Amino acid sequence: MQHSLADADHRYLWHPFTQMKQWVAEEPVIIEAGQGAVLRDVTGKEYIDANSSIWTNLHGHRHPKITQAIKDQLDRIAHSSFLGLSNVPAIELAERLSKLTGLPRVFYSDDGSTAMEVAIKMTLQYWQHRNQPHRKKFIAFTDAYHGDTIGAVSIGGIQLFHQTFQPLTFEVLRAGNIAELKKLLSDEIAGVCIEPLIQGAAGMRLWPSGMLRAVRQLCSHTLLIADEVMTGFGRTGKMFACEHEGVKPDLMAVAKGITGGYLPLAATLATEEIFNAFLGEYTEFKTFFHGHSYTGNQLGCAAALANLQVFEDENVLKKLQAKIGDLQSRLAMCRRLPGVVDARQCGFIGAIEVGPYRVEEQMGVKICRLMSERGVLTRPIGNVIVIMPPYCITGEQLDKIFDALAQSLVTIIT
Ligand SMILES: Cc1ncc(COP(=O)(O)O)c(C=O)c1O
Question: How far apart, in whole angstroms, are the C-alpha atoms of residue 44 and residue 60?
Answer without folding.
Answer: 19
